[in-house]
Amino acid sequence: MDGRHVIPVPAANDGAPAVVVEVRQNGSRPLDVRLVGCEGENPYVTTIKQRSIGDLKKKGNNEDWEIILSHFLLQKQPEKGHAGILDGVRMDYSPKGNNIQITIWQDVQGIKMTLGDFELHREPEEEIDPIDWAYTSAQAHNLALQEMAQLKARAEGEQGTIDKLNAQLQDFIRTKNESETAMLQQFMELLNEKKRKIRDQSRLLAGAKVDKAAASAVQSTRDETKHRKPVASRASKRKAPVKKQEKKESDSDQMEIDEAKDEERNDESGPEAATPERSTDGETEDEGDAVNEPGCLRSSQSKDTTDPAPSKAASAPRAVPPKRELPFSRPSTRNKPSEQKPPLPQDDEDEETDDEEL
């Protein structure tokens, strides 16, 4: 409409005629407008600049005031986030001398709160074309009707979609209820069938002959398993082989000590056998017995190792001899009896006896 709007402004006092105001664009900005109003007799004119709309404001902030002026003068609807600004806001006029004053106010719980106002000054020389104003108003009315028809058609289309979705939802709900009912029916039939089978089995068991002895045995077994308490686990005996091994080691150490003593005795008796003194057959037999004594001790000790209990009892009262500096090391004592040659002194003695007899 070439930036023209014709708006009605009601009177603040009831019974007074309304004022028709033409709003025409008069600048580069939206609220740079020129207002021409008429109550039916005299024209009234004023000019508003957007940069000075803050001077017309009484309360509120500049942004809200700009939205309110755009709504009433330019017939522009606010955005979604600012729709609540127009709640209870009204615009009317009142005569003020030769001029008229347009006031924008808000009804807050029955209290009239003025947001802003501006005056239209009386200009008798201003020409007014009522036909042009009527044409502009009719054109705006037709445009509004077209927009309303489009919105109505769109709303009807959306309503049809909503109806279809509601029908589908109802169908889904009905199908769900039917499925649940069928499932419950099947469950009831299955449960009844199970109950019938249980009753049949109970009748069969009631009519069957059961051996009383077998029944009492089963009952006693159940009672035992029911009232049985866990028994504490036995102590582990895995350390017994270790004690036996230690006992064997102590026996072997004792045997080595005895062998060392026997070897010392043999060493002490050896020089006596090497002397050129005359010896008898009895002495040679005693020496032979003395030479063979380690073997006897070894055999007796081997018997003691096979029977650990007597050896332990026999070795307990014996005291350990004092430490001696032996001319040989311990590992060699085990093999030394095999290296000795005790029969040599016996041969010498036998030769001496033979010489004496000759």
From TrEMBL:
InterPro entries in the cross-refs: XRCC4-like_C
Acidic residues bias spans: 252-261, 346-358
Domain of life of the organism encoding this protein: Eukaryota
Coiled-coil ranges (or none): 148-204
Sequence ranges of Basic residues compositional bias: 227-242
SUPFAM superfamilies per UniProt: XRCC4, C-terminal oligomerization domain
Keywords, in A-Z order: Coiled coil
PANTHER family per the UniProt record, alphabetical: MITOTIC APPARATUS PROTEIN P62, YALI0C15378P
UniProt protein name: Uncharacterized protein
Organism expressing this protein natively: Lophiostoma macrostomum CBS 122681
